[in-house]
Amino acid sequence: HTEQEFVEDHLFDTHGSVSLKSEPAAIGDPCAEDEAVASETLGAQEESLFRAKEETRLRGKPRTPENVGALICRMMSKRAWTTRLQNSIRSLVPEFNQELVLSVLDGAKNYEQALNFFRWVEKTGFRHDRSTYLKMVQILVKDRKHNHPRCIIFDMQKKGVEWDEQFFIELMNSYAKAGIVQEAVKIFQKMKDLGVKRTVISYNNLFDVILKRGRTFMAKRYFNAMLRDGVTPNLVTYTVLIWGFSLSSKMETAKRFFDDMKTRGLVPDVVCYNTIINGFCRSKNMEEAEKCLAEMKGNGLKPDIVTFTSLIKGYAASDRVDEGLKLFNELGSHGVKPNVRTYVSLLPYLCERDRMTEAHKLLNEMVKKRFVPNDRSIFISMMAGHCKSGHVEKAFQVLRAMDKLQVHAEPMHYSMLFENFCKAGKPKKAVELLDEVLNKGLLLIPVTSYTLEPRSNSTMEPSAYNPVIKYLCENGQTQKAEIFLRQLMKCGIEDSTPFNNLVMGHSKEGMPEAAVELLKIMNRRGISPDSHAYCLLVKSFLEKGDPAEAKISLDGMIESGHLPSASLLREVMESLFNDGRVQTASRVMKSMLEKDVRENLDIVAKILEALLMRGHVEEALGRIVLMTNKECPVDIDHLLDVLCKKDKTIAAVKLLDFALERNYSVRFSSYDLVLDALCSAGKTLTAYAILCKICERGGAANQIGCKALIKSLNAEGHTKQADILSRMILGKDSSSKKANK
């Protein structure tokens, strides 16, 4: 086959599996017939082996619908839903009954397997009834699938199966779980159009759905419609209404429903009383709550732990913590035991009012009873209360209590301990906790795995991690501090303080390369480095004997808008100069002068001299111009003296020519020195040109030197230049036309 033919031969069958399309065989082709027979034989062998294997699983077990159903579910979970699998199931069970179908639907791994089996089994001759339809709808509702159960329900009558309100209640709950309340209400309204009788159960379910979303006015309308339809509300109806209106803080309406219930002859039970008492406690109306409690006892009903938990929380929330604590301590005399919600209802209010001794006692009781609260905020409240009162060790005990209860500590818990241990002068304790955080990888765990709060509420505050990082960097543990910071960076931390502390820490520990890497990260994130951090980094490179890197760091410091000190600039220039990097030192000198730093002129003079000695005359002249513009003195005479003594006549000539053009002040002795050097080097024409420029600018030269120069010019055959020079300097034939010319 070619590549194109190979691709065309692979087609997808109707069940989504890949099959190889064989070419049509020629009539009477024995090879093609043998291949077809071999393929069929292989498929039959695989099928028989699989059936034999599954039959072996049933061997020794009674062939009950449960066992057969479990076997079918295992087959569906291990194989794709194809015709071959359907044939395997059909060969295993020739005829299906209701009990077996329900068993398979119950045991299906997911709703897709259940739905495939539900639709296929009907093709085998099995007729679904109400129970199988209801089971399939419940499975789909559990997986929050809305359209599938809706289609199945509205398809029931076509199959001759009558629906009832239970199907529509399941569908309403499906939309309610998805938060689509309006669609749930439409389903309720459609029941009437379809002729489905709406009983009190349907209305109760509707009230539960709409009141969870706070639709109190809609609940009132449907309650009136319920009465108009002749549906009598029961105890559950009123309990749901009281609960919903209490949830929306509409206790007057809830109380009217409670009174209306009693006028209709309905006797409230413990659940109903607990609902109305909880509503009054939520609205901090403890007088009405106490009246309901007295009425409850008068009706011969015994309050349970739910009743007392609501009252305790109500007292605590109403600034009557002592009464709530007293009632908590009297629970044993009422014949009830506190549960985890009872403790949680009291603990936050004790912490708010700085009653930390009682709060810690209750926490210890919870640990002994292994009560794990769903609301994890009580731990942070207790830790905050202990830290506020200055008892950081007590806050640390709260963290250990969380460990005993197997409650995952969040970064915010450690953040509070870090901050307060450092404030209390115990940074070593904070470092021990940091080791725990790093070992557990708390900052790397996704927030959803331990909390439902947003990331901003679960990360550490700058006031917590900055003191710890600073302590580590100042005590030779910068590596650990960097690990900590890199984990914080994954949480979105972009605070400049820890970065600068790390740069300074690495610099102090003689690891400037690591500090440079951090600076690169800071530049990418737009975090501005500190001037002191740059200063320590430059000094670290200098101490390490790497002035080139020190200069790069110094440039970065200047680019960041920081002005290096004169002493730092001197250190860098001296280090570069001593290392033989004169031009690099010259560039540092240029940056120093451009920043109007007029110190370190002694090292500047050395750099200028070295530039000229090495032949970098143009660069040296540029630096001299810059110094002149910045009003810094330049000793031209000294430079000329050094150059002439070192036989650098070309550089000396360029410097003197530059000085003459710029009208710099140059001593006569320097002129003579340059001219003597040129004559000694045999560069008489150059000396002649320089002397002419000196004379044109009103300068004077040594007569003896001039005569020697004239003599040298005549000796070399430059008689014309010698004649001009003799007339110019010595004044011979000054009145003749030739001399004037």
TrEMBL record:
<dbReference type="InterPro" id="IPR050872">
    <property type="entry name" value="PPR_P_subfamily"/>
</dbReference>
<dbReference type="Pfam" id="PF01535">
    <property type="entry name" value="PPR"/>
</dbReference>
<feature type="repeat" description="PPR">
    <location>
        <begin position="304"/>
        <end position="338"/>
    </location>
</feature>
<dbReference type="Pfam" id="PF13041">
    <property type="entry name" value="PPR_2"/>
</dbReference>
<feature type="repeat" description="PPR">
    <location>
        <begin position="375"/>
        <end position="409"/>
    </location>
</feature>
<dbReference type="InterPro" id="IPR002885">
    <property type="entry name" value="PPR_rpt"/>
</dbReference>
<dbReference type="Pfam" id="PF17177">
    <property type="entry name" value="PPR_long"/>
</dbReference>
<comment type="similarity">
    <text>Belongs to the PPR family. P subfamily.</text>
</comment>
<dbReference type="InterPro" id="IPR033443">
    <property type="entry name" value="PROP1-like_PPR_dom"/>
</dbReference>
<feature type="domain" description="PROP1-like PPR">
    <location>
        <begin position="319"/>
        <end position="438"/>
    </location>
</feature>
<feature type="repeat" description="PPR">
    <location>
        <begin position="269"/>
        <end position="303"/>
    </location>
</feature>
<feature type="repeat" description="PPR">
    <location>
        <begin position="495"/>
        <end position="529"/>
    </location>
</feature>
<feature type="repeat" description="PPR">
    <location>
        <begin position="410"/>
        <end position="444"/>
    </location>
</feature>
<dbReference type="InterPro" id="IPR011990">
    <property type="entry name" value="TPR-like_helical_dom_sf"/>
</dbReference>
<feature type="repeat" description="PPR">
    <location>
        <begin position="199"/>
        <end position="233"/>
    </location>
</feature>
<feature type="repeat" description="PPR">
    <location>
        <begin position="234"/>
        <end position="268"/>
    </location>
</feature>
<feature type="repeat" description="PPR">
    <location>
        <begin position="530"/>
        <end position="564"/>
    </location>
</feature>
<keyword id="KW-0677">Repeat</keyword>
<feature type="repeat" description="PPR">
    <location>
        <begin position="164"/>
        <end position="198"/>
    </location>
</feature>
<protein>
    <recommendedName>
        <fullName>PROP1-like PPR domain-containing protein</fullName>
    </recommendedName>
</protein>
<feature type="repeat" description="PPR">
    <location>
        <begin position="339"/>
        <end position="373"/>
    </location>
</feature>
